[in-house]
Amino acid sequence: MTALRPSCAPVDLTWLLTRAARRMRAELDTAAREHELAGIRDWVVLTALTRSEGRTQLQLGRDLGVDRTTLTLLVDRLEGDGLVVRRHDLRDRRVRIPHITDAGRDRQARVARTCEAAEARLLSGFTAQERQALRSLLLRLAEWPEEPGEAGR
């Protein structure tokens, strides 16, 4: 069954981006759950911690666009599963800094492979050039510089 397009013409970009994000998130939530995470947001937190440690929870939340309460719940769950530990900031004992554990790194890597396969399935109808163009355009729209090696993905 084909979903109905909005009645406005031309098709609204915000609607398309929202729908595409919803579809991608549903696939990636499934991929994350295959590895005993609650959903893709858990994996996003683990990925952020593998790329840059030492950020406070507040900084991490800002970087990920997640409010403080939601991030606390995510980190609580990840800590309860042994994937993250919180340590006090040496400069301010009131501040806690989440760190990924070895088990968290392992889980993040396994989920990454599953997510890559899910993404490949979702984009299988696109040529390699179209996938590269989509990624480049979205990076520009998000005002996020391309990282070395990402343009060809």
Automatic annotation (TrEMBL):
InterPro entries attached here? Answer: HTH_MarR-typ, MarR/SlyA-like, WH-like_DNA-bd_sf, WH_DNA-bd_sf
Domain HTH marR-type positions: 10-143
Superkingdom as given in the UniProt entry: Bacteria
Kindly name one Pfam family recorded for this protein.
MarR
Protein name per its UniProtKB record: MarR family winged helix-turn-helix transcriptional regulator
- Give the originating organism: Marinactinospora rubrisoli
